[in-house]
């Protein structure tokens, strides 16, 4: 296996595993959805398509954040949110079938585009490869959510003392990986690249100086 492919697989699988594990913990600790279950039943409950608390599905009504956790008071909470749209809830008002189809197509196109970019990178662009792998893992993590449930599980809530306009949209590990990857790409774009030295041909009949 090529080193570039190995790097891609390692980073993508690590991000995907961390993302799904933390989402499982969010459902388990921040809601009552898995209460009363044990062992594999909890995992199967987490992977259920929707409404883990066995309520009948209701359009636009999501599981309540029953047990929020204040990690750093006034700044960092963990609270369960089901996001049927994109960041800031964009496109969440679309009809269910249209919204799911839209995000499935967009996710697949984005993943394909990122992989094409990755294949075009040079061995010297290790930072870019790590960045693209992080973005791929994050996009795949949220795509798995939408594929299984029709919405993305978010649970990290950053805000400033509950001041209006001072709350970052609730996010997850996949979103964080995407943001870090984009940040690394931006840093790489500002990096000064020295032009490679071009060998100047010697005049005919001359010899290089010692």
TrEMBL record:
Reaction(s) catalysed by this chain's protein: Release of signal peptides from bacterial membrane prolipoproteins. Hydrolyzes -Xaa-Yaa-Zaa-|-(S,diacylglyceryl)Cys-, in which Xaa is hydrophobic (preferably Leu), and Yaa (Ala or Ser) and Zaa (Gly or Ala) have small, neutral side chains
Q: Output the Gene Ontology terms for molecular function.
A: aspartic-type endopeptidase activity
Query: Where do the catalytic residues lie?
Result: 154, 175
InterPro entries from the UniProt entry: Peptidase_A8 (IPR001872)
Keywords of the record, alphabetical order, are: Aspartyl protease, Cell membrane, Hydrolase, Membrane, Protease, Transmembrane, Transmembrane helix
Q: Which GO terms describe its cellular component?
A: plasma membrane
- Quick one: a GO biological-process term for this protein? proteolysis
| Membrane topology note | Multi-pass membrane protein
User: What pathway annotation does it carry?
Assistant: Protein modification; lipoprotein biosynthesis (signal peptide cleavage)
Q: Any stretches that span the bilayer, and where are they?
A: 101-118, 130-148, 168-187
Out of the domains of life, which is the source? Bacteria
Sorted alphabetically, which Pfam families does this protein's record hold? Peptidase_A8
Q: Does the keyword Transmembrane helix apply?
A: yes
Compartments where found: Cell membrane
Under Enzyme Commission nomenclature, its number is 3.4.23.36
Principal cellular location given in the protein's record: membrane
HAMAP family from the UniProt entry? LspA
According to its UniProt entry, the function of this protein is described as: This protein specifically catalyzes the removal of signal peptides from prolipoproteins.
PANTHER family recorded for this chain?
A: LIPOPROTEIN SIGNAL PEPTIDASE
Q: NCBIfam families of this UniProt entry?
A: lspA, PRK14773.1
- Similarity field: Belongs to the peptidase A8 family.
Q: Any idea what this protein is called? A: Lipoprotein signal peptidase
Lineage of the species this protein comes from: Bacteria, Pseudomonadati, Myxococcota, Myxococcia, Myxococcales
